[in-house]
Design brief:
single chain; Serine Threonine Protein Phosphatase 5, Tetratricopeptide repeat; 234 residues; 2 domains; mainly alpha; 77% helix; 12 helices
Length: 234
């Protein structure tokens, strides 16, 4: 049979002597009496904070559900190349711009920024495209890489070659794969040549040759690499 653990004298006294217990509680009671307003304020503030967090989470989730439902038709318009309807709606259904304005901080608004940026890029509204593309972020490496590439496209068109190089590099390196990486590397080489970095462009084309010989970009990489090597030899 297990032995009971011996109690320390002060522990036994607290349990067996109510007066000693009362003396231990008095300082705490005095603090509460003297600082009742402070304690009450802290409790109220904590309640407001917790309530605010829960309300924000509920509101955001509700807003996102509504935005996702309204976004469906805008995506359909985008896929049908009806970009004006995709942006602004058709008078009945909302477009991406309305979703971004009315449902900020939702997943639907975040994705809408990518669609809007893509549309503005196709319309050669490069500054507007950057504004929206830079608002987008995703944990999906394929989608995020695509966004980096589009940001690179807009910067290249605006003459910001160094930023274009940085964005194409991120697109190609975020998660290297045989499907998209050669495309992003080809864009990177173009930007490097545009910036006068011929040796860097040659190395980038060489990487496509060595690592992605089954890609569509392989033949073009060989052709442009040979051309740039000829220029570098002069």
């Amino acid at each position: 049979m297990a032995k009971k653990q011996a109690q320390k004298p002060e522990q036994a006294e607290l349990i067996e002597n109510p007066e000693v217990l009362a003396q231990k509680l008095v300082p705490g009671e005095d603090f509460l009496k003297k600082n009742s307003k402070i304690v009450a304020g802290v409790l109220i503030a904590a309640g407001i904070l917790i309530g605010g967090i829960l309300f924000f989470q509920y509101t955001t989730e509700t807003q996102n559900d509504k935005a996702q439902a309204e976004m469906f038709q805008a995506v359909y318009f985008f896929e049908q190349d009806s970009v004006d309807f995709a942006l602004n709606g058709d008078g009945i259904n909302k477009g991406f711009l309305s979703i971004v304005e009315n449902y900020p901080r939702t997943d639907a608004a975040n994705l809408s920024h990518l669609y809007i940026g893509s549309i503005y890029l196709s319309q050669k509204k490069f500054e507007d495209a950057l504004t929206h593309l830079e608002e987008f972020s995703s944990d999906d490496y394929l989608v995020q890489s695509k966004a980096y590439s589009l940001i690179g496209d807009a910067n290249l068109e605006l003459g910001n070659t160094e930023e274009a190089i940085a964005q194409y590099t991120k697109a190609a390196r975020t998660h290297e794969n045989k499907y998209m990486s050669p495309k992003y590397l080809a864009k990177l080489a173009v930007a490097q040549e545009e910036a006068g970095k011929i040796e860097d462009a040659i190395k980038t084309y060489a990487e496509i040759e060595e690592k992605y010989y089954e890609s569509f970009e392989f033949a073009l990489a060989r052709k442009h690499k040979a051309r740039l090597e000829g220029l570098a030899a002069k």
